[in-house]
Amino acid sequence: MLKYTDVDFRKLTGFHKSQLSQIAKALKIPNNVANFALTPDESFFIFLVRLRNGCNYSALSGLCNREISTISKVVSFLTCYLYHIVKPKLAVTSATWLPDRLTDIDRALVEANKSIEDPKVVAFIGGTHMKIARPYNNTQHGYGVAPNAVYSGHKRTHILKYQAVTTPDGICVDLAGPSVGSQYDSFMFMYSGLYDKLNGLKFDNEQYKVYGGPAYRSSDVLVVGYKGQMLTQDEKKQNKIMATSRVSVEWFFGAVKNNFCIFNSSGVRGCGAYFLIATFLTNIKHCLEGSQASKYFQVVPPTLEEYMDEINFPKFFDDVLIDPAGSGCIYSMQQKNIVFDHLSDLRTIHTGLST
Predict the structure, then answer these.
(1) Could you tell me if residue 338 is inside a domain?
(2) Which of 99, 139, 319, 355 could disulfide-pair with 331, CB 3.0 to 4.6 Å?
(3) Contact 259, 11 (CB under 8 A)
(4) What domain range includes position 206?
(5) Is position 339 within any domain?
(6) Which residues contact 12 (CB under 8 A, 6 or more apart)?
(7) Is the residue at 225 inside a domain?
(8) In the chain, how many domains are there?
(9) How far apart are CA 219 and CA 189, in angstroms?
(10) Does residue 342 form part of some domain?
(11) Segment 198-210, tens digit of pLDDT
């Protein structure tokens, strides 16, 4: 790790050396991960290079100057560790910094003519998909998924779907998924529990809302554009303003995929867990450096300290992680795999599919 200049280091990880140390400390990455003599910075470096470049363990061994067996165990351990942190954090209800900023976000959008005043829109919702290899069917053992479940007739390939809610400061405040490729965006919204979570977007008893595309239905927490062919000029103008602003969701998904090239090739094992972690790390990057959305909307993102506030860190000892919520996670030296107690977590790690 020390042999790389800061320029090369950033190419390999997406972060500067000083930023990596700051993030590793904030994430409380343990010393001697998987019982190897590794500093938190080096362990995190190995994991970031894996996500950033998508290279196999043999190539990682050369880049990180470590044995393949070490690389494999470190990546598996940190995937498990970070997944437990990330999954509950990527929810609107965990965005502790957001309620006090709702009024300022709404005002900034309206004054910049990038939103309309009445609905009080403070975030945007959209979906994306990740290509995967044809999954193996091992459902009789409690994990795996039938290939036709994740096949998208529209995309003509096997995919996993995600749904994100992003704010104008470039932060993804909620990520639902992965879901099977055969389902629609409206289905994801209905079964993700997002409606109940969005009811918490209140400040001084004022309900703030998110804006979605035509795939969604309008409600007391979700605004969609006017539909029909007989629209007034004002309605057309409002649709154009909001549709332009909603593209910021696509900017975020683009940032995730550009920052972490592991998703550019299909067949990556652990894609479900990796995408959640990559989304979380992209949020951190935007907190430190800003983003296309924050510059476009002129809304400053939260600081790293604000974003990391009230994270529940798993307790760990050697190769055993115990989640505070009660979902145990064990790294198995024999199976060289990650095994979760709960079926939903097991399916997410192995196949990228949530129940």
Answers:
(1) no
(2) 319
(3) no
(4) 92-268
(5) no
(6) 4, 48, 49, 52, 53, 63
(7) yes
(8) 1
(9) 12
(10) no
(11) 888 888 888 999 9
